[in-house]
Amino acid sequence: WELVSKDVTVAAGATVSVDAPMVHSVDTTGVMCADFHIHSFYSADSSDPVEHKVKGAIADGLDAPFSSEHEWVIDFGPVVKKLGLEDWAFGGASEEL
User: Fold this and answer.
1) DSSP string covering 3-56, please?
2) How many CB atoms lie within 10 A of CB 68?
3) SS3 59
4) ∠ at Cα 9 (3, 14), nearest 5°?
5) 3-class SS of residue 92
6) pTM
């Protein structure tokens, strides 16, 4: 996805809409992007909430984010569904041993 950079001036108490079209710069037709090693606060080396990790993974373009916590099995699938993002991704579970 391409970045959008715009200068915006907003008066105190006002609301301003900013047009920022999403331009997909790489053709990924027929390709899926997955990450099978994502940690949330269930692992000692991360403090991120599970929903935060799933939202960020999908926003970054992952089609298949998978949890791989230390000593915990956490399934990202139900989180994807709870967030209403099933049209863009599916999640799964694994464990790092």
Assistant:
1) ---------TT------------S--TT---EEEEE--TTSTT----HHHHHHH
2) 21
3) helix
4) 115
5) strand
6) 0.71
Query: Under a CB-based contact definition with an 8 Å cutoff, are residues 68 and 39 in contact?
Result: yes
Q: Which amino acid is at 2?
A: E
Q: SS3 for 65?
A: strand
Nearest to 38 by CA among 82, 1, 91: 91
Cβ neighbors of 55 (< 8 A, separation 6 or more) are 83
Q: What is the pLDDT of residues 5-38, one digit of tens each?
A: 999 999 999 999 999 988 888 888 898 999 999 9
CB-based contact 62:33 (threshold 8 Å): yes
Both structure tokens of 46 = 């991360």
- Residue linked to tokens 């999908």: 58
Structure-token pair, residue 5: 């950079």
**Taking Cα atoms as reference points, which of 24, 32, 25 lies closest to residue 66?**
32
